[in-house]
Every structure is written in structure tokens, then in C-alpha cells.
Amino acid sequence: MSVAFRRESDEEHLEPKFEIPIAPGPNIVTPRGLKLIDAKVIELEAAVEAAAEPELAVLKRELRYWHTRQTTAEVATPPAKGEIGIGSRVTIRMGGKQRVVEIVGGDEADPAAGRIGFAAPLAQALVGGEIGERVDFNGVPESIEILDSVAVGES
């Protein structure tokens, strides 16, 4: 029989399954972020116990990602009073509009809820700033005015 007509398996024709990419750099989280990661690991472990193929492979892949995030998590030191850092809730005025954002770890980020990851450009512009200061953003000098800042959990 010709090799052209021989079929080893369906697996050889499927797209390869790669691990979920992990962002480079430190995995800095807030205390809330660590609790969310821990809860996700517990949820996925239970799902893996109850799952059958083909979902099992997908769940195990996701569990490996979250186990890695859990073991590499570094809880950020709460920012000092008046200092903006990871774990700060910051009130800003940008483009004439007032906005409140929380600076959090990457896995905890949810821009729609006002939580931005510390590596986001807006967070980078704010970290290290002080109340009353104007900071540059997106190439525009002094485009953001910092109105208030509190450590999350303080308010």
C-alpha cells in the first residue's frame, strides 16, 4: 500500500496546542489578586476532577497556567499614604473628564471595571506621581491631573 493512503491518526492534522503565554516580568499582585488566583486554581482543580476528554486537556492546560501564576505571585507592598503604586485607587482628570482607576496586577486587570494592570501605559504614567501633580501621558505633556489617591481597602 502506498504511503499516500496510509493514515496514522487524526491528531497529526490538528493544530498544535501551545501553553497559555505568560507575560514577561514579575508577577506582582494585590492581596485581592492573589485571592482571585487561588480561587481560580480551586475552581479548575474541581473541574479537572469532574471532566472527561476532550475538555480535560483544555482544563489541564489552563490549570498549569494558573498554578504558575499562583507560585510566582509576589504580593505588592501597599503604597504609602499619598504615594501612587500597585494597589492604589487613583482619581484623575484627563481630557476634561474625571475618572477613577485602580492599579492592580496583570491577571486582575479589568479596564471596564476601572482596574488597570501595572504594566499598562496609563498605570506607568501614574505610578510614582503625587496628588496635585500633572503627569505626561501618550506623548502629551501634563495631560493627566492627579486629584486623589488612596490604597485600595483604605477608602
Layout: helices, strands, pairs:
Blueprint (H helix, E strand, L loop, with lengths): L26 E3 L1 H20 L4 H18 E3 L12 E7 L2 E8 L10 E3 L3 H6 L7 E4 L2 E12 L4
Parallel strand pairs: 1-2, 4-5
Antiparallel strand pairs: 3-4, 3-7, 6-7
What does this protein structure show overall?
The protein has helices at residues 31-50, 55-72, 121-126; strands at residues 27-29, 73-75, 88-94, 97-104, 115-117, 134-137, 140-151. The radius of gyration is 22 Å and the shape is elongated. Strands 5-4-3-7-6 form a five-stranded mixed beta sheet. It has a two-stranded parallel ribbon with strand order 1-2. It is α/β, with parallel strands linked by helices. The longest helix is centred in the N-terminal third of the chain and has 20 residues, at 31-50. The chain is 28% helix and 26% strand. The protein has three helices and seven strands. Keywords: Elongation factor, Protein biosynthesis. It comes from Sphingomonas alpina. One of its GO terms (molecular function) is DNA binding.
